[in-house]
Amino acid sequence: MKREPGAGSSYRQILRATSIVSGGRIATIIVGLARSKVLAVLLGPAGIGLMGVLQSVMSTSSTLFGLGLRQSAVRQISASGGDLHNLRTVRKALSRSNFLLGFFGLVLLWAFRGQLSVLVFDTPDRAADVGWMGAGVLLTLVAATHTALMQGLRRLADMVKAGLVGSALGTVAGIALVWSLGLEGVRWFVLSMPAFTLVGTLWYARKLPASPIGRDSTSAVWTQWREMASLGSYLMLSTLVGGVSALVVRSILTRELGIDAAGQFQAAIAISGHYLGLILGAMAADYFPRLSENVADPSAFVTVVNEQLEVALLLVAPLLLSVLALAPLALTIVYSPEFTSATGILRWQIVADVLKVVCWSLGFMILARGEGPIYLFMNVSGDILFMLAVFLLVPRLGLEAAGIAFLIQMAYSICLIWWFVGSRYQYVPTKSVRTYFGLLLMSAAATALLCNISALVGGAVGVCLSSAAVFLAYASLKRA
After folding, report:
1. What is the DSSP letter of 123?
2. Nearest CA-CA partner of 265 in 283, 291, 284, 246
3. b/e per residue, 249-258, with b = 16+ CB within 10 A?
4. Residue 471: Cβ within 10 Å count
5. Angle CA 461–463–465, to nearest 5
6. pLDDT tens, 233-248?
7. CB–CB of 79/89 below 8 Å?
8. Which helix (H) or strand (E) holds 407?
9. C-alpha closest to that of 394 among 453, 344, 319, 429
10. 457-461 long-range CB contacts below 8 Å, 24 or more apart?
11. Taking residues 69-87, what's their average pLDDT?
């Protein structure tokens, strides 16, 4: 595919940033898979289901009380051009608000732990587990302050190391607690991750540039906070609705099919999240700051998006097609043979993930432009559609309906967001993007269809297509 002059350096920058972050993510994922494997063997689907629900409570609450300040702070730091005085003000506004908001979240979750347990588990017996997730909220938000600073300043290596330290230490501590306490140790298993993540971020935050000596007025800190909150509140509401939708879906599955069904659902989305997070999560660490720097230049803005989307499609294709072809084996290896019932969900999710890659890349255009209300509408409407589809389809189709509902959501989202960025930002995909997207979508759909007819034939075709995707990615990116 023909590229613009000078584009090679941009592709190399994308690949370099991705390699740094994805290298750490690979190690983190391996640790996470080992953690899930041990939990699955020790406690079975019930333990995985309980872990998933508690993690949803903690992450949803962290989103609510975090007000989206972490993401909006990254945008402001990136757009500031390295002004240390501005960095000092952002740091003060972010650190103070995150601590106060996290403490407030801790108090509220503990105060309403009984009601929340009934809402989530349909029983008050898990009130203590829910209440302790408040401590996780405080730990998560304090750690997010340092992570935002490292990402905004593009200290990607330090950010990766901090996360890896937290994941490794948290895994060791969490497994030891589950080993000794059984199912009652799951709460401490969940809390071990934010606790040790904070330890890692505190250690590596010492390398951040020192703030200039001086004091910021209360009005300056307040102004900085208000600017972050203006976009962050929309991000918070969007992520909150996403977290609530995941919680509602788990609740529907638990009520309709039992806690084991929630565990099967958790296993499928965890595997999907691992391979997507490996590529997209790694790219986002550099993509969002770089995109924010080019907001004022419409041509460069669109170019950054197309380059990022092209690389994302190339890199994610082999992983996506491999997991799709070998879904039952992946569930058995990562968890245990008890989780192969999640195969249907996983395959539907992977086909939908092809659309999600595009939605992910284009969604950052809206964030970098600071158009919070539009971003909120697109995500909330998609999540509402997802919950509605699960509610209507699960009683009729069973567990697999959760995967079908996700595909419905992504089909709606890609149509909406592609239309919007084309009309508002004059975004036009390059020929490379259109080609890679079309090939990946057709390959995923064909593999999924064949797997439903014959697992052996579908698996063989999927592996062959995955191998072809590796060669295509290598040949395309080599020219960068």
Report:
1. S
2. 246
3. bbbbbbeebe
4. 10
5. 70
6. 887 788 778 878 887 8
7. no
8. helix 401-424
9. 344
10. 458/325, 459/325, 459/326, 460/325, 461/325
11. 71
Copy the structure tokens of residue 282. Answer: 């790694």
Q: What is the pLDDT of residues 417-455, one digit of tens each?
A: 999 999 998 899 999 899 999 999 999 999 988 988 888
Listed in sequence order, the residues at least 6 apart from 352 whose beta carbon sits closer than 8 Å to its beta carbon are 403, 406, 407, 409, 410, 411
Count the Cβ atoms, other than its own, within 10 Å of residue 372.
21
Neighbouring C-beta atoms of residue 115, cutoff 10 Å: 12
Q: What is the mean pLDDT of residues 193-201?
A: 88
* Cα–Cα dist 349/268, whole Å: 8
Q: The whole model's pTM is what?
A: 0.72
**CA proximity to 26, closest of 201, 287, 282:** 282
For residue 7, give Cα distances in angstroms to 76, 142, 260, 264, 466. Answer: 26, 38, 49, 44, 27
CB within 8 Å of 275: residues ≥ 6 apart: 316, 319, 320, 323
| Structure-token pair, residue 295 | 């907001």
425 token code pair? 């930002």
Question: Distance between CA 240 and CA 249 in Å, rounded?
Answer: 14
For the chain, the domains span: 7-478
Virtual torsion, Cα 103, 108, 109, 110, nearest 10 deg: 90
CB 185 within 8 A of CB 50: no
Top-confidence residue, 54 or 160: 54
